[in-house]
Automatic annotation (TrEMBL):
This is Lysylphosphatidylglycerol synthase domain-containing protein. It comes from Flaviramulus aquimarinus. Keywords: Membrane, Transmembrane, Transmembrane helix. The keyword Repeat does not apply. The chain crosses the membrane at residues 12-32, 52-71, 132-154, 166-189, 210-233, 245-268, 275-298.
Amino acid sequence: MYNLPYKTKQFFFVLIKLSIVGGAFYFIYHKIASNSVLSFSDFIDFLTKKHIFSLKNVSFLVFLSIFNWFFEILKWKNLVSFVKTIRFKNALEQSLGALTASLFTPNRIGEYGAKAIYYTINLRKRIMLINLLSNVLQMSVTTILGGLGFYFFILEYNPDVNYYKLARFLVILLMAFILIGFGMIKNTFSIKGFSLVKIKYFIADYPKNQLVLGFLFSLVRYAVFSFQFYFLLHLFEVNITYFNAMVIIASMYLIVSVVPSVFIFDVVIKGSVAVYLFSFIQVSELTVLSIITLMWLFNFVLPSVFGSYYVLNFNFPQNDDQI
């Protein structure tokens, strides 16, 4: 594209942005309209019967979603300051814009490139590493709290676990760690295109106070969206204590976090896992699927709608005129 006329470059640039936004909206529509486990009409009818659409309920749910993304944006602003200081407005634009651009990519892989493109070429590799670090911090919180939740879940409900499959999974996991260790020794193993040695040195040089703050932001985010799930259980008149709800919610997020998926179908995966886990306390499938869908709508679809504005208004950094 370097030899194309300026107006032609601009035309293709606008076309790409429109394609990203159009693709995101299409997948959202497809997921809502073609949901094989929960039809949209049944979903709306059920919410209406439960009186979920009151101004008070919707306002509080939106507030929790804003609160959730507020701490994600603060986390990104804090972590990226290691390479460049940005304002909250910039962090907001990058976080929501990247969400829209990555909504339909496998495991949100598109987020890495979407955030990096906001920066000049010399910073992009480090920005991608910071995004990886941000996801690792969130995954650490999910794993720690999810592990505790799953432990209490087994103690409380004694699920019928296939120990052969569990043992096979642990063996595969152990082999994966061995391969990772071998890769570190040989400097051949990589994550998201970065060698583990490079990642190790990058993290070692990273300011520890920023890592701690990033972990705390991840912890607060987890507390917010897990409480939002509990609040929805309360709205659907599920009689359960906060602790028992968190045991199941934490277990659910732990399990779905290790299942590779196209992000737009994440709601389906969460739904199937949640239906199984909440069946131990006799919560109906329709209730669980409705809550999962609402969580997806409030925390990903709604922010991605606002993110589409930032995608459409995106421009490359001033000192980087490459398209």
